[in-house]
Amino acid sequence: MNNFWQNKSVFITGHTGFKGSWLSKTLLMFNAEVHGYSREPITTPSLFNVVELKREISTHHIGEINDKTKLSDAIKSASPDVIFHLAAQPLVIPSYQDPIETWNTNVLGTLNLLEILKTITKPCTVIIITTDKVYENNKFTQPFTELDPLGGYDPYSASKAACEICVDSFRNSFCKDGQPGDHLKIATARAGNVIGGGDWSKYRLIPDLARAYSENKILKIRNPNSIRPWQHVLESISGYLSLARHLHLTDELIFQSAYNFGPTVNDVLSVEELITETKKHWDIRINIEKNTTQPYEAPILSLDSNKAHKYLNWGPKWNSTEAIIKTLKWYQKFFLDEDYKFEFKQQIEEYFWESV
To answer: Which of the pair, 229 or 195, is modelled with greater confidence?
Structure first.
């Protein structure tokens, strides 16, 4: 995989975010030419800033995903071989607070990107990042496959399901031979709940645990029994990179579709189980909230990644315990002002260079 990315021009929307930062650094270490387009980091601190990625990437554009002129100019300047679209409103609870912003960003922002790409004649591979929450959650315990119906109870999940439908419609309408987007090959990627060092988002468990630990505060937990497909952020990134490489190198239609990237089905944890593992390493005080008026969130989510195993030869490398330990290790170094930049780089090396 490493040699494929050498000197490739890669354009990332949402590069200043948590996952965008890990993806940017990974591609830089693969000697790709990385171009980014995003809003300013929305958290303080932010991983993008503390590891000083702005110094390393080729171009750094700040703008809105729906700003067609600015985004178009940035893409044309980068002349990308591959695009990873991560720019999104990525959280469930804020989607209840501002559903219009969520839909504008997640659906219309994606369509804005795709419309721009119709005008770029250079062949281009496009990976649209969505989420495991795109499925119509029937509360059954079986893992979701890519053939299961899409849906969404909350505005975030619904907007991401709509994004998937939008992408599929665009691909069918404009990407066949003789159509204005026939130079594009597009796939969507649905990952589980990613964890890793440097996430400071609100309403996410690991950042909440890190803040509670560093500030010696009691952490309030909403849904201790909720089950999620927790995985280290590098697991999803390895899936995205593998999908992009296969999509770029072949015209087989199986790669121009949706792919799940999640942990093995016997390696999913409840919120309470994740906290229990964390408490083996950090002294944290927990308070379970019993507020029945909180916004709805699906109690169970699990992904079937057999399609990725079969066609991409992809599978998770680190189990949930390893993912938690590596995540806590980064935060610990950050809190002690030790070499967290080196730890950031080292975890990427451990994941990719030991698995090649």
So the answer is: 195
pLDDT at 300: 76
- In this structure, what DSSP letter does residue 195 have? E
Q: Is residue 261 part of a domain?
A: yes
In terms of DSSP bridges, do strands 124-129 and 184-191 run parallel, antiparallel, or are they unpaired?
parallel
- Residue 258: C-alpha distances to residues 54, 89, 96 (Å): 31, 20, 26
| Residue 335 in domain | no
CB 274 within 8 A of CB 205: yes
Question: How many CA atoms does the CB half-sphere of 52 hold within 13 Å?
Answer: 4
Number of domains in the chain: 1
Please state the length of the chain. Answer: 356
Domain membership of residue 93 (yes or no) is yes
Reported as a single tens digit per residue, the pLDDT across 2-60 is 689 999 999 999 999 999 999 999 999 999 999 999 999 999 999 999 999 999 999 99
Q: For residue 300, what is the domain's CATH number?
A: 3.40.50.720
Q: What is the maximum alpha-carbon separation in the chain?
A: 61
Residue 275 counted as domain residue: no
Q: What's the pTM value of the predicted model, to 2 decimals?
A: 0.96
Q: Which residue has the tokens 């990952």?
A: 191
